[in-house]
Amino acid sequence: MVKTFNCFELLKANRKRRGSFQYTVPSTDTYPYQWLWDSCFHTIILSHFKINDAKKEIFSLLSKQLQNGMIPHMIYWDKTHKTNFPRISWGKDGISTITQPPMLAFAVWQVFQKDKDINFLKKVYSHLYHFYRYLLNERDPHDKHLIGIMNPDESGEDNSPRFDLPLNLPPVQTLEENTKRRFKLVAQNIECKFDAPFCMRNFFWVKDVPFNAIMVTNLNLLAKIAKQTGNSEDAVYFTKQAEDISTAMRELMLEDGIFYSTYGNDYKKIKVKTWAIFAPLFAKIMSPQEAKKLVADHLLNKDEFWTKFPVPTTSLKEPSFDPSGFWRGPAWIGTNWFIYKGLLNYGFRDEAEEIKKSSLALIQKSGFREYFNPLTGEGLGAQNFTWGALVTDMA
Questions:
Q1: Taking a C-beta distance cutoff of 8 angstroms, is the pair 235, 226 a contact?
Q2: pLDDT tens digits for 257-306?
Q3: Domains along the chain with CATH numbers
Q4: pTM score > 0.85 for this model?
């Protein structure tokens, strides 16, 4: 078994400081900056070891919040760092102008569960309020109660086959082809000044299943944070928004027992099976019967997702499946964590335990790698990658 001590040591080794701020990079060699949902993961992990370090991770993220409430998905604290990570011109100095899956309330709530520090909640509440209000107001221009993303990178899964159709790319492609298309999108978004409703209408508008499922879970937790800080009216509002998104997901995404991401003004379904079909379990959106069928027919299906080292990010049956293709097939500990939590929500303890065991086996076999071949367990991508430490939170 991977020692939790090693997990903490990994995050300490990837720790950086800039002025009064402390943050963790996913990998010192490959990803030497700060990312939004990565830091939320880091906060969750650090809450098991040193609560003050977990809080510092949050404060560093919030320090770069934009005036409109958006929190950028990247912070370039040290732009002089030598790295192969591509230099992207976002139109802002030191930060990106897109966001990432809104895991912030979850991370904050987990910290609060450890030490019940109301002052911490009060310090961060206004930041959370404005971030989630930004998503609710700016990313749902048709008032359909589904949050849109304007770049695949906002999903956290840059080249997932879920985005091939709206990017006008074929199922079989190179990472270079995908990256070129996404960089073009950045240029187009700079043109439209990252005005989300306008940019989404004209260039790229996906209502992604995991993003919205994560939003539902986080809005419900934000309602709890609001209650704790004396903002009872906000709590009612955020609870209602979570209910509205859940309802909209069922109405606009669900077909034959599977939730599919949609795109464009007419909300066309993107019928590609990736790990995203299990994300509604994380938000408790499915009925027990629906969850049972999803797990039996797809998760435990050896021709789809139940590989030697589950869970691949893309079904083996998809033409886009590539066991070493970044987000097009490899297993990631982060997505395993979401599925693990979702399974526990519905009482699938044995299946959740198998995913935990598989995650540990991947790290034992190949170390803390960025992602893994789900057929062989071979480690791929960045080394000393922090997401592996999420096994600490699989308990």
A1: yes
A2: 999 999 999 999 999 999 999 999 999 999 999 999 999 999 999 999 99
A3: 4-393 (1.50.10.10)
A4: yes
